[in-house]
């Protein structure tokens, strides 16, 4: 309960940025029936700009949970191709949806056993797109403006070649084959995959949020399930704190000790002063 205020603050700060990555992952929950478990979902939001991550538990994978989470949000939303996110963008016209090239690439990787020549050709172009991203990270000027200029100069021609190839080849493959599904997935989401080049703030993929979710996968192997729905919501709080601390490069134990010593004397309106980012500034100042 003491963590709820700072977790709420982290969520609000992420939504203020105008660029949010979102994903979901499963968690088993004992739902009251003996030896029976319920498959719940952790919905996760990540801010590449603020280095914050937020977890929220919901009992299902429908759009009700994420719809409530982003009801007041305006800006860019980057996700995989799950149709619930398309519905969210439809429900909220102030949201512009971007998709993830890592997910698109996985479809072609699966298709290597089905149509190696076509799959390899597409994967080679995607690899070149990623090499362009890497070259920007190696530059001194890491501004969104410089990344946009680089993408328009080098990534756009590659994407145009890829789109032409997909359009030409798709009629020649079986729609239900692995390569057919890879083509269909990419073409259906082309605009949401393509437009990352037009804004240097947007990442090429959702890997940052997938990295943030990995501890949840590790937890599923260790503790197996949450004892009930309330426990799953509590777990979400801890993942929010631990994940954000990791992104802020602060020790979560030290932060929690610092936070718990101060939270009862701090107004809920002043949670920024007790956030992991404020703690990070404090320890950085001490080390100078």
Main attributes of the structure:
56% helix, five-stranded mixed sheet, 12 helices, 13% strand, 288 residues, globular, alpha/beta
Protein model, in words:
By secondary structure, the chain is an alpha/beta fold. The protein is 56% helix and 13% strand. The chain contains twelve helices and five strands. It has helices spanning 4-16, 64-69, 83-91, 101-110, 116-137, 144-169, 178-188, 190-194, 207-222, 229-248, 252-262, 276-287, and strands at residues 19-30, 37-47, 52-58, 75-78, 95-98. The chain has a five-stranded mixed beta sheet with strand order 3-2-1-4-5, sandwiched between helices. A hairpin with a 6-residue loop joins strand 1 (19-30) and strand 2. The longest helix is centred in the middle third of the chain and has 26 residues, at 144-169. The radius of gyration is 21 Å and the shape is globular. The chain starts with a helix and ends with a helix. The mean pLDDT is 94.
């Amino acid at each position: 309960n003491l963590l709820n205020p700072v977790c709420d603050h982290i969520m609000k700060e992420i939504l203020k940025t105008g660029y949010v990555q979102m994903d979901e992952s499963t968690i088993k929950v004992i739902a009251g029936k003996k030896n029976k478990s319920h498959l719940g979902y952790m919905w996760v939001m990540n801010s590449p700009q603020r280095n914050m991550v937020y977890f929220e538990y919901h009992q299902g994978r429908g759009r009700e949970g994420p719809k409530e989470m982003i009801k007041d949000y305006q800006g860019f939303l980057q996700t995989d191709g799950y149709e619930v996110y398309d519905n969210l963008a439809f429900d909220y016209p102030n949201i512009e949806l971007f998709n993830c090239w890592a997910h698109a690439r996985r479809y072609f990787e699966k298709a290597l056993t089905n149509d190696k020549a076509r799959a390899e050709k597409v994967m080679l172009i995607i690899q070149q797109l990623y090499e362009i991203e890497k070259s920007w990270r190696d530059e001194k000027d890491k501004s969104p403006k410089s990344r946009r200029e680089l993408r328009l100069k080098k990534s756009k021609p590659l994407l145009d070649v890829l789109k032409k190839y997909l359009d030409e080849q798709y009629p020649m493959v079986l729609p239900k084959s692995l390569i057919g599904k890879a083509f269909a997935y990419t073409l259906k989401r082309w605009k949401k995959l393509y437009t990352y080049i037009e804004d240097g703030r947007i990442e090429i993929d959702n890997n940052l949020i997938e990295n943030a979710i990995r501890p949840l996968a590790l937890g599923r192997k260790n503790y197996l399930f949450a004892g009930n729905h309330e426990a799953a919501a509590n777990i979400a709080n801890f993942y929010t704190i631990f994940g954000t601390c990791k992104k802020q490069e602060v020790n979560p134990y030290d932060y929690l000790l610092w936070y718990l010593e101060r939270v009862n004397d701090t107004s809920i309106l002043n949670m920024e002063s007790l956030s992991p980012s404020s703690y990070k500034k404090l320890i950085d100042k001490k080390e100078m």
